[in-house]
Amino acid sequence: MNDIRQINDDGSAKNYDQNLAKLNDLNLREENEVSEQDKCTPTLDYLQSVIEELYSYNKNSSENNPEKVSFNKEVLSEKINEVLTLMKTNEEAAVAENKAQYYYFLGKTLSVTQPVTEECINVFSKAVKLNPTHLDAWNSLGECLVHLKRFSEAKYCFLASLKHGKCKVILRNLSIIMREAQLLTSENIKENLNAGIEYAKEAVELDTTDGESWAILGNAYLSLFFRRQEDKLLRQSINSFENAVKDPVAAKNADLHFNRGVALKYGEIYTDALLSFEQASILEPTWTTAKETLEDLIKYLTSTQTLYQRKGQIKSKRLQQMTESLNLSCLGLYNNKIKTLKGYVMLEHIPLSKLKAGFNANNVICGRVVCVVYNQEPVPYTFCLVDKELSCVVVSVYNLAQGRGPIIGDSVAIPEPCLTHINAKYINQTFQYPNIRVNLPLTMVVNKKNVSAECVSQPRFSSKPF
Fold it and tell me: What pLDDT score does 342 carry?
């Protein structure tokens, strides 16, 4: 019995000594890692401050002196050469402190201006090979590849970095590149757009106060909305943009306000859309697209309201002649029972005057097109519809191919119409009219015939990538 106890005691003592040795070895390694992280790097610190000044100069000169672009480029080029000379002079000391960081700084200096060079790609590649956990280097390498339109390689860089940790900037870039046209195919588009949303969500989760992450999420939702036309996606996009503008830093970004304006315009929330386009043009006065989009939207709303009030400017006698031939045959397939998920249903034909705000279930309307509203942009295709009672309503049709919309004199039947009352204000102007929104042109009947699939087209949303 005593012999057994002695054996166990000896075994325990031996295990204790082994565990203590392992613990001491672990502590020693941790101390070495800490000392490596906390190692004094005066040369790299100095180079970092110089590079930050370079980037600050580039940003301030481009924002504050856009009219002196050529002069700024010359001065910037001189400053870049000065920094590169400093990098070369201090290379030995900097490499001794942290070789990967030195190459990262060198790449940052080379990539201040566009287009980036192959040398820049090679330098960043060295940085990530020397330190695969260097997320900033992975991100910079990926962004440079994007600028060179080498999107597949850029995507690989962003994905490779995730193996070593998550960074909101990289997640945002992944969200953007997932909807890059060159990487989209008919087989992967749904998967990629959904992945773009998920990456943007992860970026938001890492920092819920970061407006840029919210803006990227808004763009991701908007891209998928254009593909699937689900109202929920449009609402999620608008809500994301609302969170983005709460960030004082992000709120200074003209792209954010412009993209928010696009989402609001598609949601027919016109007052806020006008204000968003206005803010985008104020923040970036030289960006003509923002100013022109604002002006075009004002013209569109003005024309729509005027033509609605005047019923297409068609005289009463002519209007009577156009509408008196309207009958149940103009309903096309909706003159009979239609098959739904709940079985066969007979839609009730009602006059425009009986429409209620919102979704009019189990009803169908019919009228003649009395005018088509000119719109600089092809979406939405807008026309005024007058029924047999001479009541008028505006119809805005989305996802309709150019040149495929109904024209003046055509009969149009719309099943289960959704009626809203547009009430938009901008400066001293007010725009008011009843509007029926049609997201799916295939549901319409024009001149007693169904709209064909070739008349349908899906818009694309594009924003400045990086």
Answer: 75
